[in-house]
Fold this sequence. Notes:
Strand content: under 5%
Number of domains: 2
Radius of gyration: 30 Å
Amino acid sequence: MPILPIDTGRYGTPEMLKVFEEEQRVQKLLDVEAALAWAHAEVGNIPHKDAEKIAAMASTKYVKVERIKAIEREIKHDLAALVRALSEQCGSSGAYVHLGATSYDIVDTANALQLKDAIELILKRLNNLKGILQHKAYEYKETVLMGRTHGQHALPITLGFKFSVWGYEISRHIQRLNECRPRVVAGKMSGAVGTQAGLGDYAPKIQELVMKRLDIRAAEISTQIVQRDRYTELICILAMVATSLENFATEIRELQRPEIAELFESFEAEKQVGSSTMPHKRNPEICERICGLARIVRGLTIPAFEDMVTWHERDLTQSSTERFVLPEACILTDYILYLFTNVLVNLRVDEQRMFQNIKLTQGRTMSESVMMALTRKGVNRQEAHELLRKLTLKSEVEKRPFREILLSDRFVSSKLTEIEIDDALNPKNYLGTAVKQAEAFSKA
Length: 444
């Protein structure tokens, strides 16, 4: 019976769950066994008719998961159980099933097939998310909001600029996944310790043919397993993807606070419930779910690193770990991407509130703009900074608009006209290249 929330259907997309469901996993293992038999036939080790029989029977239509499990309960070895179950269906041709191979020739090559599919799905979602961010960056390239550092008002930026920052981060993840894919999607046919002794004189050719048949690369060298730095690299990249999405989701959560109220998750007003006791609540629950699940993905990097350590040419410590780590990392990262994409597509933006929030400090956040205006009039930069530091404090303590303080200051008013002060205090005039950078990303 289902126990974990992935199994119950709470988390995960149908596309990625299909990649890792039990029957699909068994089919990948059978695909590798069929490719091995075909390669043996191609080099003349076994008759073609026997390879064809093995290929025909290497399907979950004939090799049932239940039968494999029944055999495993008896012999205590999952892959050997699959070999026996396949051999049963092949009649006399069953004698050639698994010829010259070790269990992890089959398991690691099947891993590569699954990870190939998983990476493709995640890349598809990343590229889709990038496209949405590009659209949003252009749409909101001139929408001014307050940039914040240390949780405090800093300088004005645009929402399109913020989306561009996120988008380039996603672009780097796309690049990382594409770069690691050849290293991760690698199978092997190298036998019990990697020497290929059991495969005979044509061992290199058999490995080449198997991988060509399956459309994946062969590991350059391996022991009984492909070395786990490959998987660790992938898990670390997926953890980075998940953490980036947690970062973006955290920003939306912060900006949805009633005290800020600039960005909001969509909320189905007709039916959605925010709290079991407080009828008014409209929580950013999807963004919070993203943040929670990202912690699980990050946590998977620890066992992934531990799995790089093995006794001699192989031990069994990776086996149990990877049954969790590989599916969970891919399923949860894909699901988080799906969630965040939906959040972004349906994001509600309150531009009026953004404008109101900019005015909260009565213009003091434009002090750098005024300082730079003074330097253009020949004022020493350090002296201008100290003067404006004092004037912003005066504005804050006296609760007077910064404009009023500037106009009343003899030194400032002797250097800048009222129009020049107003220009310096206008957030739209101090966006630097924010708009151009958003436009550049929207076309990247």
